[in-house]
Amino acid sequence: MLSRRGFLGTAAVLAGASAVSGRVQAASIPEAPTTTTNTMQPPLFPSSGPDYQPVVTLNGWTLPWRMNGDWKEFHLVAEPVVREMAPGMKAHLWGYNGQSPGPTIEAVEGDKVRIYVTNKLPEHTSIHWHGMLLPSGMDGVGGLTQPQIKPGKTFVYEFELKKSGSFMYHPHADEMVQMAMGMMGSFVIHPRDPKFMRVDRDFVFLLSTYDMDPGTYVPKVTEMTNFSMWTFNTRVFPGIDHLVVRKNDRVRVRIGNLSMTNHPIHMHGYDFKVTCTDGGWVPESARWPETTIDMPIGSIRAYEFDAIYPGDWAMHCHKSHHTMNAMGHDVKTFIGVQKRDLAKAIRKIVPDYMPMGSAGMADMGEMEMPLPDNTLPMMTGFGQFGPIEMGGMFTVVKVREGIAANDYRDPGWYSHPPGTVAYEVSTPATGEPPRQQGKAPNRPAVEVDVVKPRMKGGHTGQH
Ligand SMILES: [Cu+2]
Hints:
Layout: E1 56-57, E2 66-68, E3 71-86, E4 89-96, E5 105-108, E6 112-119, E7 128-130, E8 154-160, E9 165-170, H1 175-180, E10 185-190, E11 201-210, E12 229-232, E13 243-246, E14 250-257, E15 263-267, E16 272-277, E17 280-281, E18 289-290, E19 292-295, E20 299-306, E21 311-317, H2 340-349, H3 363-366, E22 380-383, E23 386-390, E24 394-400
Parallel strand pairs: 1-11, 3-6, 5-10, 11-14, 13-24
Antiparallel strand pairs: 2-3, 3-4, 6-8, 7-9, 9-10, 11-12, 14-20, 15-19, 15-21, 16-17, 16-18, 16-20, 21-24, 22-23
The structure holds copper (II) ion (CU).
C-alpha cells in the first residue's frame, strides 16, 4: 500500500564522497515513501543491525529507511494531506508523506540518523525532535537553532540516537497553526540490547484534537480550548484501530500527547505500570500500579501489562466529552423536560422536528439522524450487544487466545464463556422501597432545612 514517490531530484555529487563525515555526501536524496492508507500497517522488522520488536502505529505506519554507510537515512515530506477521521468524515490537514500524523520513525539506540525534510507546504516549517538528546543546532527550533525551511526547500538533520525510548516530532515554526493542522509523528528508539525491556507487542499513537464544526473540512487553527474532534492518531471512534493482543503477550502501549489539554487515558480489565516517559525508562522501584494515566500535555507515557485476561476491554479518555464527536456547542440539556407538547407545536412549522434527549442522550446512539455532509454522529458505533454510544477517543483492546505472534488482524467480538455476561432478571412487582426504621443509636437527629430550588426565569423544569 506504500507507493514510491520516486527520486525527488539528485543532490549535487560531492567530491570525495567516500570520506565519512557528518555532512551529506549521498549521491541522491533517499526516496520518500508515501501512503494514503489509514489502517494500521504491519510492523516493519529490521533487516540489519540489532534485533528488536517493531512497533505498530494505530491507523498508521513506519517510515522505511535506507542505509548509507553507517547512516540510517529517512525522508519526510511536509505537505497538505487528506485524513479520514472515521468513515464518513475527511479532514483537510497538513502532515507528512501522505498522512497525518506522519509516519512513525523507528531506529536503534546508537544509530546515526540522517533525516531529510522537504517542505511542500505553502509556508515555512522546521522539525523539532521532542525528547531527544542531540546537538543544539539539530533541535529544529526555527529562528533559534536553524533558518526556517522555506517552501520547496529540503533540509537535513543529522544526529546520533543517544538513548532508547519514546519520542515525537513536530514543527517548531508557526506552531499554533501547524500543530492544529495535524503536523506530528512518533519516533521510537529501540534499546541496543535486544533483551532490555523486550515486549511481544508494542503499540504507539498520539493524542491530538481539532476544532471542526459539523459539515466543515478544515480545522479552525486559532482555537485555544474549545476543540470538537478528540483523536487517537487523528482518528475517532469507530474509526480507531483495535489493539489486538495475543493472550499472555507482554504488551506496551506508548501514547504521546500533542493536544492542548490533558487526557486521563483509562484501560479496562487490567492494572498496569508506566515504564517509560519521553524522559526515559522508569526504574522498577519508581513504578506504581494504575488503571488511568493522566497524559500531560507535550509528553509521552508508555505503560505495560501481561495480557492474561482475555476479553474486549474498552480503552478511552476518561473526560466524557472526549468520547464524543463534534456536536456544535449549542446543544441544550433537556433531561427531565417533557417536550411532547412543544414538539407538536414545532412540527406545525418544521414537519421533521424530533425532540431529543429528554431521558438522556443515549437515543442518539441508535437514531439515524440526518447530518450535514462530512459529519460524524456525535455518538455511534455498534458492538455485539448494541450501540456503543461513543465517539472521539475510544477504542477496544482485544485479548485473545490462539492468535499468531505479530498477527494484528481484527479477531471479531469476544466470545464470552457461558455465565460470564451480565444478564437481565425478571422484575418482581415492587411495593414501597424499604426504609430504615427509627434513628441510628447514639446519634443526634439532624434538622435539615429543605430549601425550594430557585427557578430560573419562571421555568420550572417540569410540567
Ligand atoms: Cu481526553
